[in-house]
Write a structure and sequence with these properties.
The complex is a heterotrimer of chains A (423), B (337) and C (324). Chain A has 423 residues and is of the alpha+beta class. Chain A is built from 12 helices and 14 strands. In chain A, α5 (191-200) runs parallel beside α6 (218-227). The chains are: A alpha+beta (423), B alpha/beta (337), C alpha/beta (324).
């Protein structure tokens, strides 16, 4: 057989590198199909690599215990080729680019890791560098090395946006991939309308557009889809998760796996809270009152107002409460600072501001970091709940993805405080 | 410093440059006026008065009154420039680029590139542009946006007498073809003009107001409108950066982007219809290169997508105004995402 | 005068007198500042416009110049609507959007005054192509001046008309000034424009544009030739401009006493009055009556234009496209 490479396999989307735990075969000794040839460890698993065919390695390149990226050359399959030929093969070997799909999450992991570490000293930005003043200031505050940034301004000048882009995780790829826009016979419709029409099985020819010059637009298709109650087609639609959703899923799983969980459930009669709120003219949601209650409780029971980092307990002087906000990109938990010092009215304003900015992706990094306590948002349920004299809700606080991300671990306590969620 | 009008500044600059460099020549319709008449040469000195006295000083060899033949005027300027002269041609109305477009667009703009950089075409075309004088659809247009889109041309639009001198000097001494736009409603605008040599490099915008809340990018006559709006807004505590581009090609991106990075709000004021306009160009630049700095969508203060009407009431409705600029600034500030 | 009856003559006189009165009224009114923009007066050239247009029907075409009021009136445009247009009124012939330089009335074959010197001739050739295709003997007339005769567009149009053998007529009104420059300076062919047309291969006439009869007769022969399928033709009319290039022009290029002299010796209205009395059964009274009626018409037109409402600002957005 001609010389052939045995490379670091890629198990799963997040695997970027692996460690040779053990070679189970020896150089020059044949092995049979199905035989274990090596043990490879990742940060998650140790896996046995089985031979795919009867073969032998003419050269084992990677050493036991060595950690190598996906695609790296581990050994060379062959017969009894001269050593020089094998050397040439190894020299000529170029690993395939294995970064592609993994890069999104890797960067996020790297970023999450970076947050827990002490930020490196800000690299010096050369005075003669073509960079806008705002970009320079941002690069300095963000400890960003701008030397590798290709500026988008005139003559390659680095603009604020370039710096912010470099400081930001990669964009969320949405609505990607090819789409059958259908033939021209479908009338004068916007691309979005065509896409939706295909998804909902709406016949564009039957629609009268309400857009400019009779163009069929999104709303026309959606209302037709609703009116006609067109049954969705039987096929399962597969939608790729955004990196953000992937990160949320991964971190919630991590939290679940690495933090001892226990649950306390309480039913609370909220009559007095509701009447107090009624008396205040219903300004402030039930949640705002709960936030205030949590803040006061944290002050009274400082043992709960902590973060656990490794073997240290960090006591937090103020009641910094993460408020869960559902956005169309996923759950965000901006942190309300010093909530114990705020009135319900002030909490209402502050939470409203945080939620609005969360939904428009305008939160600053420091606003989603820290805190010792998370509170689910009852927002959408609020109007119905206010009509009842008592609410029957289970209580559970929710450690959010972001929340977890800002700490090395979390405490049992934060997963167990009584407050409310829907039945 | 001497106080003079834009008209005088242009007139003196041409005279000084002709004095300084004998390859500088001037040509155009009625730039002398009265040729072949009983009144004799200089009976008018250009209908804008910007070329008066040149003929007497430099004679018919270098100050060339032409028949009404725009294509020939611009083409002759291009040819003379190829052959070692520095011509300053006048298009009595910028609208007449329509008549001479091939010579501007396919000839002078492209010579250097087409000829592999082996030549230069240091011609200056002065174009009198702009609305506000009820000169109707064929004598009021601001064609600078269309010209800005053309690689190979440089586009200058002075908003003050000092810049008229500085930019025109630079245009004449520079080695590339320059379209130098003079607003017909601004010839009488007076201001201080530096004595002696005064050059304003192309591609360096002028920050005429510093405010920090909203960035107003503009050029030509709209600078004045924008300053008026900015001054009014300043009284209400709203600070505007007003950027006079001076040249739309080359464009001073840095000044625009630096300001927007601070203010996060952009208003572009452009005396043109909106499509493919300077306003569209600047807002595209800013959204592309300072997207993350923007706190509000760019506001474009332009004319509507129509030709320029004649009647006073209609032309007023057509033109941007200080009032419209002020409204745009307030709208940009009121925006909440 | 065999082909001109009494009615013809009185109509021609009325048109020339109307142009004169219209323009002189504008000359006065512009000084008040009520009329905006640029205005170029046709006074002195009345015989040229009327002598040409007297031969034309509503379905013949003319394309005019920036000095277009005379052509409009000679072709039959509504004088009151013209006045409103110049005042920028909603009731103007072009709803106040065109103004003095862009008056048009396509319904009577007046394809527009034109602000661009030299733009008219190619347009007229297009109308002539249309006329030829229609085959009903219509003609298309391009009015140009001694300024426009130096534009490449005019040369191209003349050549195209000859090549296509279309019924186009190139009327060159030589008033001796292209804006503020003398024709001796600007027209290389020694103050002779007709020879240029001849050089392109068409027949050319020359006539006195300050004399209605001279213009009328030359145009009669010319149009016989063109309507008879002889292809395009040109005529150079020697005429005079009584006012400046535009209103406000100080006219320093004029010689001493030049204006008095041409008004004395080259006034087409004076010439017409004396000629009709020689040849026809028209009395001084007949002409005076017309002068009176024309005066009343212009008074009314001016008063109405002043009182008429301006266009509403939203009209700025209308009429850009047929549909969009």
């Amino acid at each position: 057989m001609p010389l052939k490479a045995f490379t670091m396999p890629k198990w799963g989307i997040e695997m970027s590198e692996g460690m040779i735990g053990e070679w189970s075969v020896e150089e020059g000794k044949p092995f049979a199909r199905g035989e274990v040839i090596a043990l490879i460890e990742t940060d998650k698993i140790t896996n046995e690599v089985e031979a795919e065919a009867d073969a032998k390695f003419v050269r084992i390149v990677a050493q036991q215990g060595e950690t190598l990226p996906v695609g790296a050359l581990l050994a060379v399959y062959g017969d009894d080729e001269p050593s020089a030929e094998v050397d040439a093969f190894i020299a000529a070997f170029r690993p395939a680019d294995a970064r592609m799909a993994a890069s999104d999450t890797e960067d996020m992991i790297a970023e999450a890791a970076a947050e827990t570490e002490v930020p490196p000293a800000a690299p010096q930005i050369d005075d003669s560098l073509a960079i806008s003043p705002a970009a320079r200031a941002r690069a300095e505050s963000g400890h960003l090395d701008v030397s590798s940034i290709a500026g988008s301004g005139r003559g390659g000048r680095i603009m604020l946006q370039d710096v912010e882009q470099a400081l930001r995780p990669p964009a969320d790829p949405q609505l990607k991939g090819p789409f059958d826009a259908q033939g021209e016979g479908n009338g004068f419709a916007s691309p979005m309308a065509r896409r939706l029409a295909a998804r909902h099985g709406v016949d564009l020819k039957a629609l009268k557009g309400t857009g400019p010059r009779g163009r069929i637009c999104k709303d026309d298709v959606l209302s037709a889809a609703g009116a006609g109650a067109a049954a969705p087609s039987g096929e399962i639609e597969i939608v790729a998760m955004s990196p953000m959703r992937k990160a949320i899923a991964r971190r919630l799983t991590e939290a679940k796996q690495t933090i001892p969980h226990f649950y306390l459930r309480r039913r609370v009669r909220a009559d007095r809270l509701l009447s107090a709120r009624e008396a205040a003219g219903r300004r402030g949601s039930v949640n705002d009152y709960l936030t205030r209650a949590v803040a006061l409780a944290l002050r009274e029971v400082p043992e709960v107002n902590i973060q656990v980092r490794g073997t240290e307990i960090h006591r937090i002087p103020t009641a910094d409460i993460a408020i869960a906000v559902a956005t169309n990109k996923g759950l965000l938990t901006p942190v309300l600072r010093s909530a114990e010092s705020l009135s319900v009215e002030q909490i209402r304003e502050a939470v409203g501001d945080l939620a609005a900015r969360a939904r428009s992706s305008k939160l600053k990094q420091e606003e989603i970091e820290g805190g010792s306590f998370s509170l689910s948002n009852l927002g959408p349920m609020e109007s119905s709940s206010s009509t009842r004299s008592s609410i029957r809700r289970r209580a559970r606080s929710s450690p959010s993805a972001r929340h977890v991300r800002s700490r090395s671990t979390t405490t049992a306590r934060s997963a167990s405080f009584p407050c409310c969620t829907c039945p | 410093m001497a106080v003079m009008s834009i008209r005088e500044a242009i007139n003196r600059t041409i005279a000084e440059e002709m004095e300084r460099d004998e390859t500088v020549i001037a040509l155009g319709e009625d730039i002398v006026g009265g040729m072949g008449t009983a009144g004799g040469p200089e009976a008018i000195g250009g209908i804008w008065g910007a070329t008066g006295g040149l003929y007497a000083k430099f004679g018919p060899g270098r100050v060339i009154d032409t028949p009404i033949s725009e294509s020939a005027i611009v083409g002759a300027a291009a040819g003379a420039a190829l052959a070692g002269k520095r011509p300053i041609a006048e298009l009595m109305f910028a609208d007449f680029v329509g008549v001479s477009l091939d010579q501007i667009w396919n000839q002078m703009a492209k010579f250097r590139y087409m000829f592999g950089g082996k030549t230069k075409c240091p011609a200056v075309i002065r174009l009198i542009y702009g609305a506000g004088m009820n000169a109707a659809a064929q004598h009021s247009q601001s064609v600078y946006a269309m010209m800005t889109s053309m690689p190979g041309l440089k586009i200058a639009l002075p908003a003050t007498p000092a810049d008229a001198k500085g930019l025109l000097t630079e245009a004449i001494r520079g080695d590339d073809p320059v379209l130098f736009f003079e607003h017909k409603a601004m010839f009488g605008v007076k201001g201080e003009v530096p004595e002696g040599e005064h050059r304003v490099p192309f591609g360096h915008a002028r920050l005429t107001r510093e405010g920090g809340d909203v960035t107003i990018v503009t050029c030509g006559r709209m600078v004045n409108f924008s300053e008026k709006a900015a001054d009014k807004l300043a009284a209400d505590g709203i600070g505007c950066d007003v950027i006079d581009l001076r040249t739309t090609s080359p464009l001073d991106e840095e000044t625009i982007l630096d300001s927007v990075e601070q203010t996060g709000r952009l208003v572009v004021v452009d005396e043109s219809p909106p499509r493919c306009s300077l306003a569209a160009d600047i807002s595209a630049l800013v959204t592309a290169k300072a997207f993350s700095s923007l706190k509000a969508p760019p506001e474009l203060v332009t004319a509507p997508h129509t030709p320029i009407p004649f009647a006073r009431e209609l032309e007023r409705a057509w033109l941007p105004s200080p009032q419209k600029v002020e409204e745009a600034v307030r709208k940009a500030l009121a925006f909440r995402s | 005068m065999s082909q001109l009856g009494r009615d013809d003559l009185l109509t021609a006189y009325r048109r020339m007198a109307t142009i004169r009165a219209f323009e002189e009224r504008l000359h006065d009114e512009i000084k008040t500042g009520e009329i905006a923009g640029f205005t170029h007066l046709y006074c002195g050239q009345e015989a040229a416009a009327v002598g040409v247009c007297h031969h034309l029907a509503d379905d013949d075409y003319i394309v005019s110049t920036h000095r277009g009021h005379g052509h409009c009136i000679a072709k039959g445009c509504d004088v009151k609507a013209m006045m409103q247009e110049i005042y920028g009124r909603a009731g103007g012939l072009c709803k106040g959007k065109g103004g003095s330089m862009h008056i048009a009335d396509i319904s009577i074959g007046m394809l527009g005054a034109n602000g661009i010197v030299g733009a008219g001739a190619p347009i007229a050739v297009g109308a002539a192509i249309s006329a030829k295709l229609d085959g009903r003997g219509k003609v298309s007339v391009a009015f140009s001046g001694d300024g426009a005769c130096n534009q490449g567009t005019t040369f191209e149009a003349m050549n195209l008309a000859v090549v296509l053998k279309v019924p186009a007529v190139f009327v060159f009104e030589n008033n001796h000034y292209s804006e503020h420059t003398g024709v001796d300076y600007s027209v290389g062919t020694s103050n002779d424009i007709a020879s240029r047309a001849e050089a392109f291969g068409m027949k050319a006439w020359r006539a006195d544009g300050c004399d209605f009869f001279s213009t009328f007769e030359a145009m009669r022969d010319l149009l016989d030739h063109v309507r008879g399928g002889g292809g395009p033709a040109a005529i150079e009319l020697d005429t005079e401009r009584f006012y400046g290039h535009f209103e406000g022009d100080p006219q320093r290029y004029r010689g001493p006493g030049e204006l008095d002299r041409i008004r004395e010796s080259r006034d087409c209205l004076k010439a017409f009055r004396s000629r009709v009395r020689e040849f026809a059964d028209i009395s001084a009274d007949d002409v005076d009556v017309i002068d009176g009626e024309v005066g009343t018409l212009i008074d009314e037109a001016t008063a109405e234009a002043k009182a008429a409402p301006p266009p509403p600002p939203e009209a700025v957005l209308e009429d850009v496209y047929v549909s969009y």
